[in-house]
Each structure stands twice: as C-alpha cells, then as structure tokens.
Amino acid sequence: MESTNDAQTPDTLQAHPLQKNLIDRIYDTLADEEESREADEMIGKFAATLDQSRAYSTREFLYLLGKQLAKKAKEDGIVTAAVS
C-alpha cells in the first residue's frame, strides 16, 4: 500500500490516525508497518543463512536475496527482477 502524504510532517504524524493504524511514513510514502516488520524479519532470517565469516557488498547481498526471493515470488519485484 503506497500513498503520498504532503500535509503531514514527522512531528504532527504522531497524533495522526495513520499512526494508530500502524501505517509508517517514509518521506512522502506511506507503508504498512506490519508488512515492513514481516519484511525485516524475512531479511534477517535470510542474512542469518549467509556465511558470517566474510563480508558481502550491498550488490552481492541484494543479488543473493533476489535469487532467494525469486524461488517463491509469484511476480517480479525490484529485487527479484535483477536475477530473472
């Protein structure tokens, strides 16, 4: 779910109904907090499967994440499209 929200600032958002409905504002984009938490948890679990004895570049990490997501994805997204 995405929408723009030009009228709100971070200071006034706290009292806004969006906060009560667990909708996060990232700049002028609104995002479902539950979906964000699920994505954070999934990315954390994926990261835990990687070899922890070495570093990964952002490019390599996103490539490997996209490869993993592509196995389950029903359609391409930003990350999965890179490995299709």
Compose a concise summary of this entry.
This protein is mainly alpha-helical and 84 residues long.
Percent in strands: 5-15%
The backbone outline, from C-alpha atoms, is globular
- How many domains? 2
Gyration radius over CA: 16 Å
Compressed to H and E, one letter per element, the order equals HHEEHHH
List the helices and strands and how they pair.
Layout (H helix, E strand, L loop, with lengths): L9 H4 L3 H4 L2 E4 L2 E4 H17 L8 H15 L5 H4 L3
Can you offer a commentary on this structure?
The protein is mainly alpha-helical and 84 residues long. A hairpin with a 2-residue loop joins strand 1 (23-26) and strand 2 (29-32). A two-stranded antiparallel sheet has the order 1-2. The chain folds into two domains: 1-38, no CATH class; 50-81, no CATH class. Helix content is 52%, strand content 10%. It contains five helices and two strands; from the N terminus they run ααββααα.
Question: Which short descriptors sum up this protein?
Answer:
84 residues; mainly alpha; 2 domains; two-stranded antiparallel sheet; 5 helices; 2 strands
